[in-house]
TrEMBL record:
InterPro entries: Acyl-CoA_hotdog, Acyl_CoA_thio, HotDog_dom_sf, TesB_ACOT8-like_N, TesB_C. Residues 32-109 form the Acyl-CoA thioesterase-like N-terminal HotDog domain. Residues 160-284 form the Acyl-CoA thioesterase 2 C-terminal domain. Residues 289-306 have a biased composition (Low complexity). Keywords: Hydrolase. This is Acyl-CoA thioesterase II. The keyword Membrane does not apply. Belongs to the C/M/P thioester hydrolase family. Residues 288-313 are annotated as: Disordered.
Length: 313
């Protein structure tokens, strides 16, 4: 398969090897560690496969514990914590080579009618995605061309990503930057009609750019990287049904960074401004060194699943 969206659907199609045990592929990539969004998405697939389809997931809470090894399958063990009248709870442990690398707790709920409903209005100053360049094209425009390895990664990217604000490249441009970022996203091709696939695909995408908001006041998102980043934990609340192959706006902000950790919050809207998903993530930030990374959490999505930043040599 050459379509990146088809490859993403295939990546999320886990093999069931026991009643509550699933196995997921981990593609052999040039990255040092497995992309955290992949593990989160696959873990949610495993949980969702043990729940009735009329109970979609409404929240998940996850911790990245160890780096995943590219090319090595990941086993997902599902614990059926609770099957209640309204809610279902699942706990998933991701294991690779006998070690736990990730765990996730997800809650599923049958939507109820006749309750309270409201939504704070979204920001309205976002341009339409069709008026914005793809991130790879914006980088090519600045650099003239992408290095061959980065060009290959861009072609494999399952999501079309378009930054609302032009990328900043110089210290002078960073002086006016605050800790906010926003991107439009959608899968680069159809993802089918299974709601679980769309939910897990968006979970995959949610780890790709969220920590941008932490970095923006400090360094350019693309270019020489000054910090090694890793996702520590990840939480999501799913408010409305959606399709991940239709445009959604990921509005991101970082209220604080301190002590080597940065917190980021994201709100995901559709084109009509309806809030679909809320996301919170904390990331670890350490000055980048050329030495091999020590064992630690999964890598953050920024710079790993899109065209990556260039580490200092």
């Amino acid at each position: 398969m050459t379509n990146p969206a088809e490859r993403l659907v295939d990546l999320l199609d886990l093999e069931q090897i026991e009643v509550n045990i699933f196995r997921g592929r981990s593609p052999q990539e040039s990255l040092q560690r497995v992309f955290g969004g992949q593990v989160a998405g696959q873990a949610l697939v495993a949980a969702g496969r043990t729940v009735e389809s009329d109970r979609p997931v409404h929240s998940l809470h996850a911790y990245f514990l160890r780096p995943g090894i590219p090319g090595v399958p990941i086993v997902y063990q599902v614990e059926r914590v609770r099957d209640g009248r309204s809610f279902t709870t699942r706990r998933v442990t991701a294991v690779q080579q006998g070690r736990t690398i990730f765990n996730l707790t997800a809650s599923f709920h049958h939507p109820e009618e006749g309750s309270i409903e409201h939504q704070l209005p979204p920001r309205l100053d976002f341009p339409h995605p069709d008026t914005l360049p793809k991130v790879a094209d914006e980088i090519r425009e600045h650099l003239g061309a992408l290095p061959e390895a980065l060009e290959r990664m861009a072609r494999r990217q399952p999501f079309d990503i378009r930054y609302v604000d032009r990328l900043r490249w110089t210290p002078e441009e960073l002086k006016t930057a605050d800790s906010r970022s926003a991107v439009w996203m959608r899968a680069v091709g159809p993802l089918g009609d299974d709601p679980l696939v769309h939910t897990c695909a968006l979970t995959y995408a949610s780890d790709m750019t969220l920590l941008d908001a932490v970095r923006i006041p400090v360094e350019p998102l693309w270019g020489v990287r000054g910090f090694d980043m890793a996702s520590l934990d990840h939480a999501m609340w799913f408010h409305r049904p959606f399709r991940a192959d239709e445009w959604f706006l990921y509005d991101q902000e970082s209220p604080i960074a301190h002590g080597g950790r940065g917190l980021a919050r994201g709100r995901i809207y559709d084109l009509e401004g309806r809030l679909l998903v809320s996301v919170v993530q904390e990331g670890l930030f350490r000055p980048y060194t050329a030495s091999a990374p020590e064992p630690g959490p999964e890598p953050a999505g920024t710079g790993t699943s899109t065209v990556p930043s260039t580490p200092k040599s």
